[in-house]
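ok here's Antibiotic biosynthesis monooxygenase family protein:
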Amino acid sequence: MIMRIFQVVTRPGKEAEFANFFYRTAIPLMRRTDGLVSILPGAARAESPREFSFVMVWRDLAALKAFAGEDYAAPHVDPAEEALVESRLIRHYDLVAE
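and the structure:
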């Protein structure tokens, strides 16, 4: 399985608008995505009000590519979030079984 960590920093002043997108669009969309085994959405905190994240566990690389495309290392960006986000960071790891 593959762990994908996706973090965004909103543009200044866009925190509330992005939070609305995050809760109403992004989280429900991800929860319906085939091949996603687990998802942990992370909302902004007082000390980092512009930062949001997802920790996702994908069944395999094929499932991740079906969602994000062949260039899965690039962010999968919904057009509704484009004007709200200043920067994105994506990292992938092999999930370690306990």
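+1. Residues 15-31 form the longest helix (17 residues).
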